[in-house]
């Protein structure tokens, strides 16, 4: 199977024009098939504010009424998607800016209302990703850039967490490619000592993960991220890397970067 | 050569949800390869207004400063593109919402400043369309939906007239497909008597065109549209049809509709 990288960039890259350019240049140099996933929460919040629409977040998830869905469709699916695409073309990556509606690539289900009505928020399941369609696009020489939007197949776009989209893509495509899922965020990776960027934990397998949790080194916000990463690995993803966008270039130089999670 | 339809829908279809749904259903039934092209001027003007950005139009062309470019990228490339795509998926068309930056499909040149600085407005020339790339997408089973945006290949998106994009696509793809260019607008087609919708002129060739101009039947706003249509035909497009979106269904029923321009 051919290797495939699914790389998610966070807001710290998107919101910093220089960091974004550095990243896109490095991304272009990365050999083989690759997919980029992005959100754009801060830009969306700013646009909503400018339009007098109140942004409501619960546990970091945006309550998405119809006005907010318009905003995220414009920001994620238009502004950020198409600017990243234009920049990637400049660097020589044959990018195509997509949402889950395009090519019917990612189908979501509107989150059921329990205590909170999240509105037009989509959840993904094991059958969400159209691996065949995405593979057709990759084989035709295109590099997909996915915004954090899925659709329900009935004409409705759904705001969908970018980490979730990246993970679903990596899992869904692992039947056709040897997939590595990379989360680029603002730290070097999982740190043994949060105040010491040199204390990077380079490799974590499930046993080591249990130890790190027991020792209280991995806690709070990192827990769901790593739980989901190990879930993706259980479902066929070869490895998950969590690290700084600027360090991705080490992959091009034959090295490794960040924290690598694997079996 | 296989037939290809390049169909441009105007604001009267985009701004009317019922008309849009009727159109997208008909578009889905249209057999063979097809490409949809759209703008979204009214929605963009409204968003600009809501954001306190003044919309300046000269001869129907939008002066596009950097703020206005953001607006049209969000509206054409995001909101309208992705909603049309989601709706088309619902009807069964495997649509992908694109700009000219995606796949490097349409390269524009920033309009030179003469008496008026149009800002980030792109003009197209004979080499603007990447026919091979678009054909790869068509052959992979996708139906491209193009927003009225091109890019300069250096990372800059450019606001580009939707009629011009449709025409450039039809001409550019005429080397690979037997292309028909269809402009859907709010009238039945070219009318002999503007007050009588039944007075449709069904066929116009260059000689008839000269007669209709001499008789004053075709004048003002219709002249550049038809001049461009005949230019497209000279450059390889088999026929150009100008008609009402609701009448497109007659094509599916084996009939013709609107005014058909050909050699």
Characterization of this structure:
2 copies of one chain form a homodimer. Chain A is of the alpha/beta class and 263 residues long. Chain A has a single domain, classed as Acetylglutamate kinase-like (Carbamate kinase), CATH 3.40.1160. Chain A is 38% helix and 21% strand. Chain A has 9 helices and 14 strands. In chain A, the strands form 4 sheets. An 8-stranded mixed sheet of chain A has the order 5-8-2-1-11-13-14-12, sandwiched between helices. Chain A has a two-stranded antiparallel sheet with strand order 3-4. In chain A, a hairpin with a 5-residue loop joins β9 (149-151) and β10. Chain A is globular, with a radius of gyration of 18 Å. The relative contact order of chain A is 0.16. The model of chain A has no long low-confidence stretch (mean pLDDT 95). The A-B interface holds A 47, 50-51, 70, 73-79, 81-83, 85-87, 89-90, 94-99, 101-104, 133, 136-137, 139-142, 149, 151, 153-157 and B 47, 50-51, 70, 73-79, 81-83, 85-87, 89-90, 94-99, 101-104, 133, 136-137, 139-142, 149, 151, 153-157. Chains A, B: Residues 5-242 form the Aspartate/glutamate/uridylate kinase domain. Chains A, B: Pfam families: AA_kinase. Chains A, B: The record marks 8, 225 as: Transition state stabilizer.
């Amino acid at each position: 199977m051919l290797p495939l990288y699914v790389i998610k960039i966070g807001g710290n890259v998107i919101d910093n024009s220089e960091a974004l350019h550095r990243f896109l240049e490095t991304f272009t140099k990365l050999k083989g098939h690759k997919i980029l996933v992005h959100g754009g929460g801060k830009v969306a919040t700013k646009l909503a504010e400018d339009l007098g629409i109140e942004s409501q977040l619960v546990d970091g998830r945006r309550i998405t009424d119809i006005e907010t869905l318009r905003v995220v469709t414009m920001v994620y699916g238009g502004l950020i998607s198409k600017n990243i695409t234009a920049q990637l073309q400049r660097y020589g990556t044959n990018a195509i800016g997509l949402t889950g509606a395009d090519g019917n690539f990612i189908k979501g289900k509107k989150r059921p209302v329990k205590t909170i009505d999240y509105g037009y928020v989509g959840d993904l399941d094991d059958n969400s990703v159209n691996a065949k369609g995405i593979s057709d696009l990759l084989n035709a020489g295109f590099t997909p850039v996915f915004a954090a939007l899925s659709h329900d197949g009935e004409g409705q776009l759904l705001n969908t967490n970018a980490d979730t989209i990246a993970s679903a893509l990596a899992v869904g495509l692992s039947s056709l490619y040897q997939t590595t899922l990379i989360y680029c965020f603002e730290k070097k990776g999982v740190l043994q000592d949060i105040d010491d960027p040199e204390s990077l934990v380079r490799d974590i397998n499930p046993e080591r993960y249990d130890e790190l949790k027991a020792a209280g080194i991995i806690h709070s916000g990192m827990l769901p991220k790593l739980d989901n990463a190990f879930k993706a690995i259980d479902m066929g993803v070869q490895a998950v890397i969590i690290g700084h966008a600027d360090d991705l270039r080490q992959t091009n130089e034959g090295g490794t970067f960040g924290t690598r999670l694997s079996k």
